[in-house]
Amino acid sequence: MSDEKPDEKKVKLWDFPVRLFHWSLVAAIVTAWWTNRELMIDIHAIAGYTVLALVLFRIIWGFVGSSNARFASFIKGPKKVIGYALRIPRGSMADLTYAGHNPAGGWMVIVLLVLVAVQAVSGLFASEDTFLFFDGPLVAHVSSDLASTMNWIHHTNINLIYAMVGLHVFAALFYLVVKRENLIGAMITGARTVPAELAARFAQIRFASPIAGIAILAVCAVIVWAMVTVARG
Predict the structure, then answer these.
(1) For residues 199-210, b (16+ Cβ closer than 10 Å) or e, as one string?
(2) Close Cβ partners of 100 (under 8 Å, ≥ 6 residues apart)
(3) Are 58 and 66 in contact (CB under 8 A)?
(4) Interior angle at CA 114, CA 55 and CA 192, nearest 5
(5) From what superkingdom does this record's organism come (predicted)?
(6) 137-174, pLDDT tens digit by residue?
């Protein structure tokens, strides 16, 4: 039996590589946060390398992936972002539903990608000689001043990540509770139920091969692993 109402239709929204990236990034960030302590610092580093591989994948997928996963489809100018934000309090689903990230959500994706990329890259050069006693794999290739700067960035930038993650979760809960749009469920199942008159928007999505996405992710993982391995000698 279908849960769809006669005037609603379930449509495919997110491809498997995007969903795999999203939840893998969540798991990696949580793992990095939990293991930021002396006895678990090696796991913390692995989580950081995982984040780096995932970000590298998402950048590539933002150019060659499914049409609604590409940066060109959801990076909008200030006018559209502000216009969308002003419609949120009174807008209907027809006003607010996009076949992908909405204008505000699209920029949240970009900001989060930049922040986690900065966190992962700074960790490669950071040096913890106080209580963690850990050196990033590339710290030997930079000056002590640069390593110190990277260490400061690593410790400061994480607070920005926490703030953006909190905002991201708040936005998802707002849409779920107030707007009755289950964006969280869509990122799990890849599908979303929308009014039938909006289904045509989603029919225009061109989905890329999930096998290609997994292959690109695997290559990104190998690149990061090789870089870390070679750097450590």
Answers:
(1) eebbeebebbee
(2) 13, 67, 68, 69, 73, 74, 106, 205
(3) no
(4) 65
(5) Bacteria
(6) 999 889 989 999 999 999 999 999 999 999 999 999 99
Is the distance from CB of 125 to CB of 146 less than 8 angstroms?
yes
From start to end of 86-224, where are the E strands? 127-128, 134-135, 191-195
Cα-to-chain-centroid distance, residue 44: 19
Q: What are phi and psi of 138, to 5 degrees?
A: -105, 5
- Express the helix, strand and coil content of the chain in percent, nearest 5 each: 70, 5, 25
pTM of this structure = 0.92
Round to whole Å and give the CA distance between 36 and 59.
Answer: 26
Alpha-carbon gap, residue 79 to 192, rounded angstroms: 27
Question: Tell me, what's the pLDDT at 1?
Answer: 43
Give buried/exposed letters for 87-119 (b at 16+ CB in 10 A, else e). Answer: ebeeeeeeeebbbbbbbbbbbebeebbebbbbb
DSSP SS3 for 208: coil
Choose the CATH number for 19-232 among 1.20.950, 3.55.40, 1.10.8, 2.40.10.
Answer: 1.20.950
- Contacts of residue 158, defined as CB under 8 A and 6 or more positions apart, other chains included, come to 119
**Residue-level length of the chain:** 233
Residue 15's alpha-carbon distances to 74, 82, 103, 178, 208, in angstroms, are 15, 28, 19, 26, 8
17: left (phi over 0), alpha (psi -120 to 50) or beta: alpha
* Distance set, CA 161 to CA 29, 30, 97, 138, 184 (Å): 10, 12, 26, 23, 19
